[in-house]
């Protein structure tokens, strides 16, 4: 499965799963526009990708809690291209602690802003570029914490709130954008293994029925959904938790 004809935007791609997505999609031929809160972090991943021979990769700073920063990110991408094919909303601050009072007001506001407001504004600002594509997709990494009734994670209540907001936004967005040909899909993973895609561990990580979900499988779910014919609208991937 190749993605040579895809232009992909990924938020929070300076580390962890966002970095994994950027590296894997670039390896498959996609032109990647990646962001991180720190420009230096985004540039490090960009340089890792270029060192692997893929030159069509661009780095931007984007603070998902700052509307102006999101607008600047979208404007920066628009200076490179007239359309994007896939927007992956990967960014969302994690906040740990099952005690509501354990987090400061500032941390709670930042968590909800990055996951909820940040996702809405990112889609809003990139929608014109998506509508210029003949195969537009919006992918959001929600979390099992955004699924109704989920309670097994030790995440803070604010993180649950942010993820529930993402889930509700994706649900209505899917219905409202379908007439324009935009597919909206969400992933609801529990905690998962995310080995370095540039290490030997990437291929060696066990992926049996008794093992935890892996980043490899999440990437493959996204690739599978994006590669489907345009009449196939896969709204969500939900996963069993080990």
From TrEMBL:
<protein>
    <submittedName>
        <fullName>SDR family NAD(P)-dependent oxidoreductase</fullName>
        <ecNumber>1.-.-.-</ecNumber>
    </submittedName>
</protein>
<dbReference type="InterPro" id="IPR036291">
    <property type="entry name" value="NAD(P)-bd_dom_sf"/>
</dbReference>
<comment type="similarity">
    <text>Belongs to the short-chain dehydrogenases/reductases (SDR) family.</text>
</comment>
<dbReference type="InterPro" id="IPR002347">
    <property type="entry name" value="SDR_fam"/>
</dbReference>
<dbReference type="GO" id="GO:0016491">
    <property type="term" value="F:oxidoreductase activity"/>
</dbReference>
<keyword id="KW-0560">Oxidoreductase</keyword>
<dbReference type="Pfam" id="PF00106">
    <property type="entry name" value="adh_short"/>
</dbReference>
């Amino acid at each position: 499965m190749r993605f040579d004809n895809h232009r992909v935007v990924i938020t929070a791609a300076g580390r962890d799963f966002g970095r994994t997505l950027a590296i894997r999609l670039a390896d498959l031929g996609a032109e990647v526009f990646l962001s991180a809160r720190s420009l230096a972090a985004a540039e490090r991943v960009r340089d890792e990708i270029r060192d692997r021979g893929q030159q069509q990769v661009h780095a931007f700073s984007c603070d998902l809690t700052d509307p102006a920063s999101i607008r600047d990110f979208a404007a920066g991408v628009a200076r490179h291209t007239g359309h994007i094919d896939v927007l992956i909303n990967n960014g969302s601050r994690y906040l740990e602690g099952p005690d509501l009072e354990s987090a400061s007001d500032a941390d709670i506001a930042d968590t909800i802003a990055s996951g909820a407001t940040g996702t809405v504004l990112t889609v809003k600002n990139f929608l014109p570029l998506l509508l210029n594509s003949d195969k537009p997709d919006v992918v959001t990494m929600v979390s099992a914490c955004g699924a109704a009734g989920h309670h097994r994670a030790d995440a803070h209540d604010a993180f649950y709130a942010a993820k529930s907001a993402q889930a509700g936004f994706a649900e209505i967005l899917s219905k409202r954008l379908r007439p324009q040909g935009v597919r909206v899909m969400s992933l609801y993973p529990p905690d998962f293994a995310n080995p370095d895609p540039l290490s030997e561990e990437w291929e060696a990580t066990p992926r049996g029925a008794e093992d935890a979900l892996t980043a490899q499988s999440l990437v493959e779910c996204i690739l599978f959904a994006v590669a489907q014919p345009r009449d196939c609208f896969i709204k969500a991937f939900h996963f069993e938790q080990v």
